[in-house]
Amino acid sequence: MKVDWCAAQLVSYSCSYPVGSFQLEEPPAEICHCLDHDCWGTVSEWVELNRVPYKIPKFLVVGHRGNGMNLLTSGDQRMKAIKENSIMSFNSAAKFPIDFIEFDVQVTKDGCPVIFHDDFIVSEDNGVIFEKRVTELCLSEFLCYGPQNEAGKIGKPLLRKTKNGRIVNWNVEKDDSLCTLKDAFQQVEPSLGFNIELKFDDHIVYQEDYLIHVLQAILKVVLEYAHDRPIIFSSFQPDAVLLVRKLQNTYPVFFLTNGGTEIFYDVRRNSLEEAVKVCVGGGLHGIVSEVKGVFRNPGALTKIKDAQLSLLTYGKLNNVAEAVYMQYLMGIDGVIVDLVKEITDAVYDMIKPSKVDDLEEVTLAEGNREVVEVKSNPHFSQKELSFLLKLIPQLIQE
Fold first, then answer.
1. What family does this belong to (predicted)?
2. Where in the chain is the domain with CATH 3.20.20.190?
3. Contact 13, 210 (CB under 8 A)
4. Which superfamily, per CATH, for 2-70+96-115+182-345?
């Protein structure tokens, strides 16, 4: 089990931005300003009373960072096809029958929500490699890295640090410029849902006033430009998901968790059981878990469903059709995937009725007439189920 925290690494992050910088129209005004501990009971009661279970109507496929994340050291060219978290990647994913794209949002020093996964921009100047924290850049500086939209303008080099600390060129087959959250709303297919991950550094302890400042900047853009687009908020940062739930009552909020596959300083992040507690206590609508965490602890699925929470998963196993198939059988609500084309094809094949015998007719009374509904009723042989049950434990050991 990987341990990904150290108390010595944790630093405090606060700011002096005014809490009431932006006027949010969704919740009652007193809720937006009732965020101190003296008002905690009142806020919790308001959230619980206003929490309607978020019912996902079908098995969702969500494009990870658009058409898939970039693994620049991978031998699989599909993982280096299109720049992740870009308008090009988002619209490429929209060509397939997916329901949402997932992307990471941070807020620049001057208050603009931008889409970028890593905590730091890595670049090079005269042979010297340097890093700059995304949230400490102003918007104009952030946008000057990588390809530029303005004809003839050359951007600064954009490199990337891998998990093992190696610095590599961010080379992909189809590159694109960095973008803002507003750009995504204005330039991406409007019917495509957005799973907005509220991105924070795992090694920083954030003060509440800073979190509120960031969330209000994001909500301001969402409320102005989302219109009818489906939105889901999610974050690994427990306090951020609790706050965004209190600051708005329009869009569902999901808690992201590694599901116990990694251990963190904040115990709320260390198991599916803790994730359920966070969601129930904060009136959240669902959980997004590393799929290995669910496969290693399938009993938690019952607890999640009993709490009327939705469950999505992410992780490399979601690029394996058999693993997605198993989740569909288990009643998981959807998967976040990198191989969008391959998995959408697989999901279509696994869910569609193969022949008339596989359909179940349900007769419903409607007024004075009978309505026949045809529902898909998939049948799986014992051999198929046995194959999947044997395959999954082998996969999660990789």
1. Belongs to the glycerophosphoryl diester phosphodiesterase family.
2. 2-70+96-115+182-345
3. yes
4. Phosphatidylinositol (PI) phosphodiesterase (3.20.20.190)
Q: Which two tokens stand for residue 298?
A: 């399938």
Distance in angstroms (rounded) separating the CA atoms of residues 258 and 294: 9
Specify burial of residue 336 (Cβ count, 10 A radius: 0-12, 13-18, 19+). Answer: buried
Q: Which residues lie below 8 Å from residue 316, measured CB to CB, with a gap of 6+? A: 338
Complete DSSP assignment for 66-110: TT----TT-S-GGGGSB-TTSHHHHHHHTTSS-SEEEEEEEE-TT
pLDDT digits (tens, 9 = 90+) for 67-108: 999 999 999 999 999 999 999 999 999 999 999 999 999 999
CA distance 38 to 33: 12
Q: Cα 54–56–60 angle (5° rounding)?
A: 140
The model's pLDDT over 176-197, given as tens digits with 9 standing for 90+, comes to 999 999 999 999 999 999 999 9
